[in-house]
Amino acid sequence: MAEEHHRHHLFHHKKEDEDAPVEGAVYSETTPYGTDGGYGGSGYSETAYAAEVVQEPPREDYEKEEKQHKRREHAGELGALAAGAYALYEKHEAKKDPEHAGRHKIEEEIAAAAAVGAGGYAFHEHHEKKEAHKEEEGAEGKKHHHLF
User: Fold this and answer.
1) Which of 29, 39, 66, 101 makes an SS bond possible with 132, Cβ 3.0 to 4.6 Å?
2) Pick the residue with more confidence: 94 or 54?
3) Residues 6+ apart with CB under 8 A from 97
4) DSSP H stretches of helix in 12-61
């Protein structure tokens, strides 16, 4: 029982095979200060590696960005439509169920606010889509000439 260790910790677990030393391991006798232990030798190998890293400039994918904004715009439109429909439904329920009319009016106002928010998001994404389209045209070299 004395040799069994019950560890209940989350970290620093050792397995049985980790305790045993590894046979056949060879360690280098070279230190950072040289083989003689002084500061004279470098101790490091003299092999130098030269790697040329070539980075391409980040290519902006304007078409992908434009499609993404278009999808988000449509999602905002759909959200505005759904929230507006729910607001109309709650308005109808407030008339139909006078006992809980206060609750239905509150839900109607919340749905109307959500519809306005979703409409604003759709409007924002519409302008982001237009901006991405203009950036794409600018990257291709097309210029808009405003005559008036």
Assistant:
1) 66
2) 94
3) 104
4) 16-19
